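User: What would this chain look like folded?
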Amino acid sequence: MEEDTYKTITDTAEGLYTEKRSRFIAYAVPVRSAEKAKAEIEAYRKRYYDARHVCWAYRIGAAGDVFRSNDDGEPSGTAGKPILGQLHSSELTDILVVVIRYFGGIKLGTGGLIVAYRAAAAEAIAAACVVEKTVDEDMTVAFEYPFLNSIMRIIKEENPLVLSQTFEMDCEITLRIRKSAAEKLKSRLLKVDTAYLK
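Assistant: Here's the prediction, encoded as structure tokens.
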């Protein structure tokens, strides 16, 4: 995987795993922030208010370096960690996996729980649509109107996404480009007279 790409999911997906009459319902949910993840977890808690456990794990950020997991009353390390392990092994980020457990009356033991939570998380991930996204950088370049053609030629050649533009005596264009191509675009734009990055 290149440094400026990461894998995530497009939509919420569901998985189901049953072990000794215990039902494990798993949801893989795309999230972009810890706040969004927490809101989703609360929503699933309300929806499955009668479930014994609502365990979860999330990974956020292009490098997946913001992560948390929770066993929600299951023995320590038997639920949240196996779910998080599935996120790591599938190399997914900007994702939350929630696994809801309905107890079937038969204890599974720590080994059984780890297997069940891991399998439920894997089912939800397998059902999800995985996409590769680029890590992008936004920049705003300001310049005087007479240099518009020079700037536009560079934009046409480097092909960033134009987010906004204002053309008056002093012009401004906000661009989004893949991180790996950002330095080249910046240095080309800054070679144009009067151009500077805001």
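The mean pLDDT is 92. If you want, I can go into more detail on any region.
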